[in-house]
Please model this.
Amino acid sequence: MCLAIPARVAELLPDDRARVELGGVAKEISLALVDGVAVGDYVIVHVGYALSRLDQREAEATLALFAQAGLTPSLEDA
Model:
């Protein structure tokens, strides 16, 4: 089973890379598989790669479910 999580793009970096944030944790990822990503967008991240862009409302709903399950901090904690 694979798990991909929504993360917010905090900074665009050279060479199709970006810094994303989730619950106060920042991670550098690859944007090589997704076009047109901007700072503030949410992307689905799996093993260091953004797989697709995600609507903000859908990302926040998914993150809220993860937080309820105790898998991630709540959005209010971020």
